[in-house]
Amino acid sequence: MKRFVTLIAILFILLGILGVIACRHNEDDVVPIELDGTQWELISLNGSELIEGTYISLYFRNGAVWGSAGCNIYGGDYLTEDPDILTIPGVDKTQMDCLSPEGIMEQENIYTRSLTNAASYCVTGEQLEIYSANKQKLLIFERKPEYPMNPADLVGTSWQLISINGDQVIQGLSIMLTFDSDCEASGRAGCFDYELPYEASGDDIRWGMRTERNGELPQELEFQALRYTDSIIWASNYRLTTDGLEIYTAKGDILVYKSS
């Protein structure tokens, strides 16, 4: 019995050592993981969970990082060197000031400061860990799902919005989206006409947005129409399903459409 207990103890020690080796930094045997093209959702900030109701994302693309810091959208450049060096010299943000939930702006500032303090990283399984120069674990991310999509399947399709984050479109409001070509989309959200020059690769989608107001709406309907236009501009990914289209944004929103 004592020998069995000893063997179990040794096993746990070995597992712990392997876990340390998997994320050991600045060692010759570290295998670098390519970050470009990956996308992540923050699950731990300096060892703490995020404030309930907040969402923070991180995307690596063509030498740039971007995402939602909880309230504002941020962006900047990044550099990697073998085996596991990561540098994010600085980030710029939009200038919104969110009042709720309580503490969101402080959390955002801690997050962006942690990003710019990055010195090394480690990818294990579905998680990305970012460390400071003194090996303090600053950030833990979970990989966002990716879908095997072909952007050509979007061209010529038209969609009607069903819901935003599970909230149904209010009766009397129509929100439409059409993919006119492989680089242009357009639509109407109530009294707002909009155009979306876009580029897509796999399930990634990015676009600019031009809007024009044509008419008036009751306040409740206009509020939801503006909520939609404020959300779709930050699209990051899409998924075509058997009966609809889902668009995911850097702020964690999910827009669900049906074919029209």
Helix content: 10-25%
Instruction: Return the domain count.
Output: 2
What is the CA-based Rg, rounded? Answer: 22 Å
Overall number of strands: 20
The N- and C-terminal alpha carbons lie at a distance of 69 Å
Task: Explain this structure.
The protein has 260 residues and is an alpha+beta fold. The chain folds into two domains: 30-143, Lipocalin; 151-259, Lipocalin, CATH 2.40.128.270. The protein has three helices and 20 strands. The chain has helices at residues 2-22, 104-116, 219-232; strands at residues 39-45, 57-61, 64-68, 73-77, 79-81, 85-87, 91-93, 120-124, 127-131, 137-143, 158-164, 167-168, 175-179, 184-189, 192-201, 204-207, 210-213, 235-240, 245-249, 254-259. β9 and β10 form a beta hairpin. The N and C termini lie far apart (69 Å). The model is unreliable at 1-22 and 25-30 (pLDDT under 50).
Topology:
Layout: H1 2-22, E1 39-45, E2 57-61, E3 64-68, E4 73-77, E5 79-81, E6 85-87, E7 91-93, H2 104-116, E8 120-124, E9 127-131, E10 137-143, E11 158-164, E12 167-168, E13 175-179, E14 184-189, E15 192-201, E16 204-207, E17 210-213, H3 219-232, E18 235-240, E19 245-249, E20 254-259
Antiparallel strand pairs: 1-2, 1-10, 2-3, 3-4, 4-7, 5-6, 8-9, 9-10, 11-12, 11-13, 11-20, 13-14, 14-15, 15-16, 15-17, 18-19, 19-20
